[in-house]
Amino acid sequence: MVGLRPEDIYDSAYAAPGVKAATIEAKVDVTELMGNEIFLYLLSGAHSFVARVDPRSRACVGNTVALTINLDRLHFFDKETERAIR
Fold it and tell me: What is the mean pLDDT of the chain?
């Protein structure tokens, strides 16, 4: 299994410079403005996940948004034991 922390998922319009990036799309289910950041609760197929994005993001509930993930920050887990693989 693969895991990624919310702070390593960016609104593609405001992706951090110098990251080894891959782009995905997801539908915005909920937005939570926190002042200096926005939490996006996202849906992609049968999966849900959270991104912590720049407060300038224009992501809106119901819209599909392009996201950039930092491939250098992926975490891998054994599916049966759920233990981290290092």
Answer: 95
Residue 7 in tokens = 């702070």
From residue 60, give the alpha-carbon distance in Å to each of 5, 8, 20, 76.
Answer: 21, 20, 26, 30
Q: What is the pLDDT of residue 33?
A: 95
What pLDDT, on the 0 to 100 scale, is given for residue 47? 93
Which CATH code, of 2.40.10.340, 3.30.720.210, 2.40.50.140, 3.30.70.1120, is assigned to 2-85? Answer: 2.40.50.140
Full-prediction pTM beyond 0.85? yes
Rounded distance between C-alpha atoms, residue 76 and residue 1, angstroms: 6
Within 8 A by CB and 6+ apart from 79, the residues are 1
